[in-house]
Amino acid sequence: MKIEMYEGLQDNIRNLETPEIDTWKNQYSDREYVIELTVPEFTCVCPKTDLPDFATITIRYVPSEKCIELKSFKEYILFYRNAGIFHEHVVNKILDDFVRACDPRSVEITGDFNVRGGIKTVVKTNYTKGKWASGQVGKRAKGQEGNNQ
Fold this sequence. Notes:
Blueprint: E1 23-25, E2 35-45, E3 52-62, E4 66-68, H1 70-79, H2 87-102, E5 106-116, E6 119-128
């Protein structure tokens, strides 16, 4: 039987315990407007090779009742600097945590990763309030459940 070389590397990624992202009350929740966050120096680690991966993470969201507090978001992003995680997983994990934190009307997250081994990877994911089935937002470790209503 052939053993997959990536087997087991990301089995618990949805339960990865990440720092909390703080929020503040949106005084203009009656309006639809876009907030764009860009992280031009995002880094994480390849879980297979332990080599660093570099990317620009772009988040475009339409807030509802809460907006993301930037200092805690920066600390959240810095967590990944030493985390072994695939490109596809990190973008989806950021989406799960972002939605759980601020419950936006909508959000699109793009991970534009630097070329590695001659291949460039761009991962995009999105969320629109009311379009995800219950339970689709990953649950936090230690029994904390996400709010995706």
